Amino acid sequence: MNSSPWWKEATIYQIYPRSFFDSNGDGEGDLPGITSQLDYVKNLGVDAIWLSPFYPSPNKDGGYDVANPRDVDPRFGNLEDAKELIAQAHKRDLRVIADIVPNHFSDQHEWFQAALKAGRGSKERERFHFYEANTDGTPPNNWISIFGGPSWTQVEDGQFYLHLFDSSQPDLNWENPEVNADFEKTLRFWIDLGVDGFRIDVAHGLIKEDVLTNHPDPQGLSDALRLDVAMDFEKRNALLLTVPFFDRQGVHEIYRNWRKLFDSYEGRDIMAVAEAWVHPPVNATRYVRADELHQVFNFDLLTAAFNSDVLFDVVEQSISLNATVNALPTWALSNHDSPRVASRIGDEQARALALFVFGLPGSTYVFAGQELGLPDGQLQDSDRQDPMFFRSNGPSKGRDGARVPLPWSGDTTPFGFSNGKPWLPISQSWRDFTVENELADPKSSLHLYKNALELRKEFLVGAGGLTWLESSRHGSKEDALLSYSRGVITVVMNLSDSAKECDVAGKLIIVSGGTVDARDGKKVIPARSTAWFLT
Ligand code: NOJ
């Protein structure tokens, strides 16, 4: 019997509720829509769903601006719908992870409205970061918000409040015990309703220090913190070492307390995954020490080039760093904040990388639509809704491209997603990507994902560590190949544009594209492709 916790090597499917399935024709996905498609999700072979926020929200940042963390936005349904979703997921043996947003509230949350009214010096303002202007009237420091523009907004009486994101997302003051108590209430609320875990938004941001200190390159830092801004890998990493507002020691005390709260629910195995993009990478391991959280996202594969040395380094570093705290890594190729992997590195490469990653130890996250091989949606500026686009005034188009609703069926847009007008337009060119079409095509990306996830469960979950077989870092002559073995499976990825021979034993059980031939006792791996062999 497998005594390993359910989350340890789980495949977790991220659903952006607004874009998944619309049950009431208003053009936006909703909770009953998700419930109606749970058989599809289950048949993919995943273990859990992570739901991006569905709480009441003015929706200035896609629901990450929460006006009430203990309710459901009427656009998505109501609490009964949430209960039903959880019950139906559990019936199918799928766990449910809720996305919690402790770094900030919406400016429409009753606390912030009360703080505006109560004025300077009040206990209501103590729940946020309100400061006086500098003597020349400028904001307290020069930080630039991650969405562009100043990190400070002035209120009527002259004080400024801090917001690392949009001005509608005032940062909470976690030095105030009231904030802690309110979040514990929220955690209990959702656990009592049945959720199995939490994804913690901006988990590394809760404690602020040096709030009055300027940064030497605030614009560079803001760009480096955005996954949609392309930047040289080394330059990004150097800037990320200088973030003054993330990853302060105090955050760990919060998570140690939360861990006690989770563990107090005996027999529930409540887990939490931290969105903590911290530098140097070793710092991420602090979030998954035995008495803290269960997983921390690894962001490297969201930006890494399709290059064998880069990928080797990312994988090796993540596995070995996590091992120092007895944890396993997490892997993600796409999410709602970054360009879709098929657009970023190419569709064949995206399939190859997915198959490469599904063999690795640890948990793997799949962003809804990734299994279909969806590219980013092509949008006009007039369609865009992301505050990043509006606030940055720069070349960045923001994150809407990755959030275009899913195409389900039929030949014309919006492909069964909704009976109404989808909140972002779905291009007619997505006809071949519908779930219906891909289910009918055994060579589709969807079938590749389903088959691979089934084989992963059968042979790889719990198979222990990996042994590298081919990598130029290990002296292989062929730098186009990256290969490892785990348990009874050997995984070989050919990153180049031509077929490559590889000395690998075993029977081919899956390939991401093309045909694997045999020549002179060697296997010939197709260009831009990954194959698994069973030994
Ligand atoms: C990270 C979330 O993934 C992103 O979508 C959001 O805009 C920021 N945190 C702010 O909550």
Topology of helices and strands:
Elements: E1 11-15, H1 31-36, H2 38-44, E2 48-51, H3 79-91, E3 95-100, H4 110-118, E4 130-131, E5 152-154, E6 160-162, H5 177-193, E7 197-200, H6 218-224, H7 233-240, H8 251-263, E8 271-274, E9 295-296, H9 308-323, E10 330-332, H10 341-345, H11 347-358, E11 363-367, H12 387-392, H13 435-440, H14 445-460, E12 467-470, E13 481-486, E14 489-494, E15 500-502, E16 507-511, E17 517-519, E18 522-525, E19 529-534
Parallel strand pairs: 1-2, 1-11, 2-3, 3-7, 7-8, 8-9, 10-11
Antiparallel strand pairs: 4-6, 5-6, 12-13, 13-14, 14-19, 15-18, 16-19, 17-18
Helix pairs in contact: 11-14
Bound molecules: 1-deoxynojirimycin.
General description of the model:
This protein is of the alpha/beta class and 535 residues long. Helix content is 26%, strand content 15%. It is built from 14 helices and 19 strands. The chain has helices spanning 31-36, 38-44, 79-91, 110-118, 177-193, 218-224, 233-240, 251-263, 308-323, 341-345, 347-358, 387-392, 435-440, 445-460, and strands at residues 11-15, 48-51, 95-100, 130-131, 152-154, 160-162, 197-200, 271-274, 295-296, 330-332, 363-367, 467-470, 481-486, 489-494, 500-502, 507-511, 517-519, 522-525, 529-534. The strands form four sheets. Strands 9-8-7-3-2-1-11-10 form an eight-stranded parallel sheet, with helices on one face. Strands 12-13-14-19-16 form a five-stranded antiparallel sheet. Strands 4-6-5 form a three-stranded antiparallel sheet, with no helix packed on it. Strand 17 and strand 18 form a beta hairpin. Helix 11 (347-358) runs parallel beside helix 14. It is globular. The model has no long low-confidence stretch (mean pLDDT 95). The site of 1-deoxynojirimycin (NOJ) has 10 residues, from loops.
